[in-house]
Design a protein that fits this description.
five-stranded antiparallel sheet; alpha+beta
């Protein structure tokens, strides 16, 4: 005799009720219920392991997201490098991160302001300090004048430029690093001291353009302290 859907449903419900009514110690009595409970225990243990693995993966993903590095670029107006009547000046470039992780600078590009290159004398790097450690990195003249060419906005990248030993006339040896990595743990993370000399007229730097890599949530600031 063919069963109706209603009858089949009632029988299925009865089976479920019987299964739920199996005592917790049924596995000790043997039979199919012991196998079912053993399988359920194994599945429960596997789910617990899966939860632990998922928690570990979430922790790894969170740490990886914090360590993601992205490119950055900061351009700021500069200012006076040296006033004409003064013997020389030492303006400063300060690069800071507001985070606590490392960041790297791959370019410190500056552009000289409007002036007659015939009157231009000297622009160089004196020292570089990274996380408070100073390095004597005196370079040669970074922006050479071009006689008679008026008002040329000459530019130079400080990183990678040649370092000169004393005396000034000696052959160049070594160079500034092409990349500077700082910890970003407070203070002046990267500090660059320049040497400027212009006897006849004021020498100005128009802009400073810094680029590199930083952690995603950090902000890099660039400050120029003018000469006198």
């Amino acid at each position: 005799m063919r069963q109706s859907k209603k009858t089949a449903g009632l029988r299925l419900a009865g089976i479920i009720v019987i299964a739920l009514a199996v005592p917790a110690n049924a596995h000790a009595q043997g039979g199919p219920f012991a196998d079912i409970q053993a399988q359920l225990a194994a599945i429960t243990a596997q789910l617990a392991q899966l939860d632990a693995i998922t928690a570990q993966l979430d922790a790894i993903a969170a740490a990886a997201a914090h360590e993601v590095y992205v490119p950055f670029t900061v351009q700021v107006p500069a200012g006076l490098c040296d006033s004409g009547p003064s013997p020389s000046s030492n303006p400063q470039i300060i690069i800071d991160s507001d985070g606590t992780g490392t960041f790297s600078v791959t370019s410190i590009l500056l552009k000289r302001g409007f002036m007659n290159p015939v009157d231009f004398l000297f622009l160089s790097v004196n020292t570089v300090a990274i996380d408070g450690t100073g390095f004597d990195t005196r370079t040669g003249n970074l922006i050479e004048p071009i006689g008679g060419e008026f008002g040329v906005l000459q530019g130079v990248d400080l990183l990678g430029t040649a370092i000169r030993p004393n005396p000034v006339s000696a052959e160049m040896g070594g160079n500034l690093p092409h990349q500077i990595v700082a910890n970003g743990d407070g203070g002046a993370d990267i500090f660059v001291q320049l040497f400027c000399r212009s006897d006849a007229q004021d020498m100005n730097l128009e802009v400073i353009h810094v680029s590199g890599w930083k952690q995603r949530e950090d902000t890099i600031s660039v400050t120029y302290i003018p000469g006198n």
